[in-house]
Amino acid sequence: MASLMVIVSIVLIAVASWWARLRQLDYLRQVETNKQAAFAQNIGDSIKTDVTSTLSSLKLASQLVEIRNNDPASCLKKLRDLHDTVLPKLGNVGRINNKGNFSCSINNALVGRAGASLGSYIPEIFNDPAHKPVMSRAITAPGAPSLLVAIHVPVLNAKGDFDGTLGGAIYLADLKSRYLDNAKLSANSYAVVMDDDFTVISHPNTTSIGRKLTDPATNGMSKEDHDKILDAARKALAGDTQTIQYTASGGVQRISGLASVEVFPGRRWIIWVVAPASDINKVTNDPRTITIVLTLIISIIVLVALFGFLIIGYVIATILNPIRRVGIAAADIGKADFNRRVPYVGDDEVGQLAKSFNRMAGELKDYYSTLESRVKEKTAELAKIVSETEKKNKDLEKTKLAMLNVLDDLAVEKSRAEKNHLRDEAIVNSVGEGLIITNEYGNITTINPVAAETLGLKPEQVIGQWFNKVIIAVDEKEVPIDPFDRPINQALQTGKVVTSSKLYYKRVDGTTFPAFVAVSPIVLGGKPLGAVEVFRDITKERELEKAKEEFVSLASHQLRTPATGVKAFTSMLLDGYAGKLTPKQEEFLLKAVDSNERQLQIIDDMLNVARADSGRMVLAPEELEFTKLMESIVAEQKATIDGRKQTIDVQGVKGPINIMADPSKIRMVIENLISNASKYTPEGGKLTVKYAYDAKAGLTLSVADTGVGIDKKDLPKLFKKFSRIDNPLSTVVGGTGLGLYLAGKIVQLHNGKLTADSELGKGTTFTLQLPVSKKVPKSGKNPDS
Amino acid sequence: MAKILIVEDDQTIQQAYKTVLEIEGFETLVASDGQQALDLIANNEPDLIVLDMLMPRMDGLAFLKAYDQPKKHPKVKILAFSNMSIPESKQAAFDMGASEYLAKSNFTPHEMIEKIKNLVGSGTIEAKQA
């Protein structure tokens, strides 16, 4: 800091001294330049003094008798006398008479000449009523050695009237020698005198005399410099003394002083002193001036240095030291000594800084103590957590021990479960039918030896596999069954036991066999866990059935032929083809015909059943007018009904009902229903037949009787094959028990429904429903029974 | 006199029909199977054939096919009958020229005569119809 101050001080000092020197030089120059003005003034004053005294003298002399008398002889003498004594400055003295002519003059050449011939000044004084004294411009006069300026005063005669003038000439050449040369100007300086119209009336260079300063410069001086001089001259003429510096022709530097004096009342002359500029330097190089300057400089340096040190001291005391103290305090605070404070004095910036610093120190102290207390808090919390964790660990240990005990128990259970499992396995393996167990997804978990053998595969091939993938099921056309339709899926979906005798299983070798399949789902808590399937190769059963059917069919056919033969001839007899019959013969024959009819009926039934069972019952659906059919059937049955003294009430529709059905088969069904109704109703009972058709439900037919009725528990058996329900009338009625079975089958093939409702002792109602059919299938498959 | 061919393998039935037809005044021919029938009427066209559908050797359908009534014997009427209605053969029978299809067990010979008379008229009064 201090060194900086020193450097700054030195710089300042250097600048100051240089400036001082410049000012000094300027001052000296100015002084020197002003000298020229003083010179000019002096010269002017000298001239003025002389001219003024000359004028006074002339005025006095104009009162002399000799002058007034205008006597030529005495005039001249007087003039000479005057010139020697009181008018030394005049070059010539002369008397102009009241006619305006020189009456006498020292310069003889002028005698007799008109004053006007010399200039306008003489006429001027003559014409002026006041006849004030006049001064001419620079003029020439015969006999005069140089240009002159004439001064004339009026002469008054004894009466006091204007009587001409008395005057004299100031030879301008004298000016130079008398005043200018004696001016003690320095070498190479000179002076010029100019009239108030800037006509040069005196100049060291005589050729310049008579020229006007206002004329353009001809000596190579620049216009600016020339104007400068002219301007200064004008100002000087106005009374304002001037000093100027300019460049003359040839590049020479000049200094000038210009002053003017009133040499004559109303007339001023300008004195212009010209000096070379180098004169200044002469002065400034003057040892004395140099010494003065140096002393000045040194004293300035010392002063500034002193001042500088004072300032430095002040700054250090008031700014640097306090700041340094703050710095030290900050360092101490950095070492966590928060009690450190900075003393401060005053309210200035440094004081403010110190105050702020102290405040900060205080806040830091507070903050630090807050931190400390918080840390203590947290540490206490941590300790608590640690102890809690230790406690938890102890608990975990206990739990671990408990779990180990549980594991032991589990192990015991496991071995027990294993024993059970082995036992179950043994059971499964010893079952005589095919057994497959799957999980809830249908993946096989168990397969017993019978199943594997029947299917011709090894257990390891299927365990874990999806059942549908490894056990192929097809229909009788060898088309694979949709997995959704398979009993295992059905059981898993519905949670119910599902059986099927429609499937064919495909062995590994590609051959198929018909299977009876029963699946039971394993349900726990309402959710299926898996399924157990038992299946059996029913090829033999099928074959047996087929054989049975074929036998029945064949037998029926074989029976039919002779039965037909009996019918033919008995009817021929009855029809009279062998002649007229006796009543008794007819009676016997009718009985035979009756039995024969029954024979044929039974044979037909059996054949139909056989056909229905083997799926060979074929419908021949046609458009059938139902009303007409009903009427026909009822008409046919009427005989039987009337024979039993029963009534039949038919409630139908009048108009035609067109349905699609196999006429003979449907006829068979309805005939069966009505004849049953009649059969199982005692004599005198009532039959009610109702039928209706609507576009949505289709055809509905009901046959109700007032017969013995059927026990509700027997109703399900009604439509089964060979079902004969024990009732008092059954022995009388006869029949194969096939009728309802067939009727049910036929209705089923029509996609219809045949139901029965009954109450013991009250009667039975059979209801037939045929749907609105566009097409009744021609061939029916044998559905499960 | 109308000529009627009876094709029926059951002798009893055959006899029955023959008896009745003759009583009614028809001329009758009998065959026990289709082949025999064809041979019989090769050069002896009947007016009507009573055809049992179910026969050994050549059954009714085969006979019809061979006989080709629609094309070859358009004037001959055929009365087909069977033990039971077998719809396929029923339709086929009609297609192949049968005019009627009866269930044997449902019709007495007398009823059959009525049908025959409907087809060819009574034996004595109407001769071969054009």
Descriptive key words:
heterodimer, A: 785 residues, alpha+beta, seven-stranded antiparallel beta sheet, 19 helices, 24 strands, 20% strand, B: 130 residues, alpha/beta, five-stranded parallel beta sheet
Please specify the SSE layout and strand pairing.
The complex is a heterodimer of chains A (785) and B (130).
Chain A: H1 2-61, H2 65-69, H3 72-85, E1 92-96, E2 102-105, H4 121-127, E3 134-135, E4 148-156, E5 162-171, H5 172-180, E6 190-194, E7 200-202, H6 223-237, E8 242-247, E9 253-264, E10 267-276, H7 278-284, H8 287-334, H9 349-430, E11 434-439, E12 444-447, H10 449-455, H11 459-462, H12 467-470, E13 472-474, H13 487-494, E14 498-500, E15 504-506, E16 512-524, E17 527-537, H14 539-574, H15 583-613, E18 622-625, H16 626-643, E19 647-651, E20 658-661, H17 663-679, E21 686-694, E22 698-705, H18 730-733, H19 739-749, E23 753-759, E24 763-770
Parallel strand pairs in A: 19-21
Antiparallel strand pairs in A: 1-2, 1-5, 3-4, 4-5, 6-7, 6-10, 8-9, 9-10, 11-12, 11-17, 13-15, 14-16, 15-16, 16-17, 18-20, 21-22, 22-24, 23-24
Helix pairs in contact in A: 1-7, 1-8, 8-9, 14-15, 15-19, 16-17, 17-19
Chain B: E1 3-7, H1 11-24, E2 27-31, H2 34-40, E3 48-52, H3 60-67, H4 69-72, E4 77-82, H5 87-95, E5 98-103, H6 109-120
Parallel strand pairs in B: 1-2, 1-3, 3-4, 4-5
Helix pairs in contact in B: 2-3
What does this protein look like?
The complex is a heterodimer of chains A (785) and B (130). Chain A has 785 residues and is of the alpha+beta class. Helix content of chain A is 49%, strand content 20%. Chain A is rod-shaped. Chain B is α/β, with parallel strands linked by helices and 130 residues long. A five-stranded parallel β-sheet of chain B has the order 2-1-3-4-5. In chain B, α2 (34-40) packs parallel to α3. The longest helix of chain B has 14 residues, at 11-24. The model of chain B is unreliable at 125-130 (pLDDT under 50). The A-B interface holds A 557, 560-565, 567-569, 571-572, 575, 577, 600, 604, 607, 618-620, 664, 778 and B 10, 12-13, 16-17, 19-20, 23, 83-88, 90, 104-105, 108-110.
